[in-house]
Amino acid sequence: MDNQRLILFVALSVIILLLWQAWEQERQVRAPQTPTETAVQREIPQPPSEQRGAQTKAAEAPKAGAEILERGERVLVTTDLLRAEIDTHGGDLRVLSLLNYPLTLGEPGKSVRLLNDSLPDLFVAQSGLIGREGAWPNHKTAYRPDKTQYQLADNQDTLEARLEWSGPEGVRVTKTFTFRRNDYLVDVSYTVRNGGKEAREFFLYNQLLRTQIAEEGGIFAAMPSYQGAVIYSPEKKYEKVGFSDMVDKRLQREVRGGWVAMLQHYFVGVWLPPATDNLLFYSDVHNGARYVIGYKSLVPTQVAAGQTATLGARLYAGPKEQKRLEQLPEGVSLTVDFGWLTVIAAPLFWVLDFIHRWVGNWGWAIVLLTALIKLAFYPLSAASYKSMAHMKKVQPKLQALKERYKDDKQKLNQAMMEMYKTEKINPLGGCLPILIQIPVFIALYWVLLESVELRQAPWALWIKDLSAPDPFYVLPVLMGVTMFAQTWLNPQPLDPIQQKVMLAMPLMFTVFFLFFPAGLVLYWVAQNLFSIAQQWWITRSIEGAAKS
Fold first, then answer.
1. Per-residue pLDDT for 457 more than 80?
2. Better pLDDT: 246 or 520
3. N or C: which end of the chain has fewer CB within 10 A?
């Protein structure tokens, strides 16, 4: 088999694999079908729902200025990491800005707004209490705030924002949001005081409501990061519940422990109930365009007359920083979605992060990671380049065989295989390193695409964001040049058409890499340079040995 033909096939396979990954990501892996409601589930009061359309088919994304959630008075909370707005209508966490994450490099004062109650990018955290009898405060109830502004002082580590609700029959509820320094976790608790004459019982629910927003970025957005809901249970582990899944079938599942989340690129909102609670996971679609993922407790909380009960959950709303996610309950770290090559991508990120702690620059960390990968595969690469060098040495003999048997391909192939055997050459020996690089390449792509740590991370000179394409296309051009140099060092195909194709490959890949993250192109340039140096040295050594 012609070595160059196989290399061309492998190179094109990279493109096919990437496009397949994009298609798989876009269609969103469906969660397993859930059982129908049990009698226990039907007995549990349902959270108040928005008006559902007559049909919940996929709707167009809402436009700015369209209907928004009803608003009350705002309670402003500012910590070292967050600027939050809590609405007294429902006690929802409506707005959450991440102060350490600029929206763009050119506007450091404008932070990413993760939670937002304005269309089209609607994303809010809602919660409430429900019961079989009597009134309870939910995400449509009006609360009274203690204060309307809170600021975490320099000498404070925690800050509490309280809302009050008074119901009939002497029931009073305090909803408390607890914020902490250097933390994206928010405790949301309910303290219920039963001033009546009879015992009361109620259930807690927490949910995330958002609209679906299309990825931006032109051609580069052909491989988007997953956006949608996720549920995690000890039995079935990590499961994606795409927006289309919610439209097709409402989720209803009993679990013990676990959590629910809404993902977007680099950031996530996760409701974290107590690990031992019996829960009902559910989903819903409001007005065909607002998607809900949430849970409610299956076991009611009872509070006797004259007594007080407290319950709640934690909300993580922030960046998918892997060190922070690892401190959260099991499975939350999987929201950093490296796709089907997580088994390779996760160790790659660990090594990359380890190097970064020493050098302090993600770009140089990528270069050093490339060097380590080349060292790890040195025996395979050396064998490959030796095979290529031997192939290049026998090129004149192969050309002579082609001229001799130009009208008989079968005899030509037999003669070539006999020569390979005599010269002890493996015509496929140069392909193994390329095959190995394909999964590493794709895994590193997802590391760079999905790791918030590399978001807006500079390297040097004009490269201010390794997760975005090179604005001046210098790295893609360098990649093309180094790829052409590698092609020149390799033995040339005997077929003139294949020669032209191999010479065109660097140009094709240069165009393709124009839209890749600069960090990924930097990796490819570095590995090309290391490969060129290694291949030149091995080829020179073999040619020198042949002359002597």
1. yes
2. 246
3. C
| 494 vs 320, more confident | 320
What are the distances in angstroms from CA 519 to CA 348, 352, 434? 14, 12, 20
Dist CA 449 CA 462 (whole Å): 19
Mean pLDDT, residues 73-79 taken together: 97
Task: State the Cα–Cα distance between residues 529 and 523, nearest whole angstrom.
Answer: 10
For residue 296, give its domain range. Answer: 66-213+226-337
Residue among 116, 27, 9, 105 at smallest CA distance from 64: 116
- 171 found inside a domain: yes
pTM score of the predicted model: 0.81
Q: What residue type is assigned to position 527 of the chain?
A: Q
Beta pairing class for 149-151 and 74-78:
parallel
Q: Is the pLDDT of residue 23 over 50?
A: no
Burial profile 31-58: b = 16 or more Cβ within 10 angstroms, e = fewer: beebeebeeebeebbebeeeeeeeebee
Which tens digit of pLDDT belongs to each residue from 336-350? 988 788 889 999 999
> Could you tell me the two tokens for 200?
């009361």
Based on the fold, state whether residues 479 and 532 are members of the same structural domain: yes
Q: Is 269 helix (H, G, I), strand (E, B) or coil?
A: strand
d(CA 35, CA 42) in angstroms, rounded, equals: 13
- In a domain? residue 40: no
Residue 258, φ and ψ in degrees, nearest 5: 110, -170
Q: Say how many domains are in the chain.
A: 2
Rounded Cα distance between 286 and 283, Å, is: 10
Q: Return the exposure string of 122-140: e unless at least 16 CB atoms fall within 10 Å of the residue's CB, then b.
A: bbbbbbbbbeeeeebbbbb
pLDDT band at residue 424 under the 50/70/90 scheme: low
Q: Are residues 146 and 291 in the same domain?
A: yes
DSSP 8-state symbol, 462: T
Fill in the amino acid letter for 444: L
Residues in the chain: 548
Domain boundary among 311, 337, 363: 337
What per-residue confidence (pLDDT) applies to 220?
A: 39
* One domain for residues 307 and 290: yes
Question: What is the C-alpha to C-alpha distance for residues 482 and 477, in angstroms, rounded to an integer?
Answer: 9
Asked whether 433 and 377 are in contact (CB, 8 A), the reply is yes
Whole-number Å distance between alpha carbons of 36 and 46: 15
End-to-end Cα distance, the chain:
31
Indicate whether 439 belongs to any domain: yes
> DSSP alpha helices (H): ranges in 311-460?
322-325, 342-359, 362-376, 378-393, 395-404, 409-423, 432-450
> Burial, 299: exposed, middle or buried (Cβ in 10 Å; 0-12, 13-18, 19+)?
exposed
Which residues are within 8 A (CB) of 93 and not within 5 positions of it... i.e. 6 or more apart? Answer: 84, 85, 86, 115, 124, 125, 177, 186, 188, 315, 317
Instruction: Note whether residue 33 is domain-resident.
Output: no
H or E, element range at 530: helix 518-547
For 34-101, the three-class secondary structure string (H helix, E strand, C coil) is CCCCCHHHHHCCCCCCCCCCCCCCCCCCCCCCCCCCCCCCEEEEECCCEEEEEECECCEEEEEEEEEE
Question: Mean pLDDT across the chain, nearest whole number?
Answer: 81
Structure tokens at 201: 């019982």
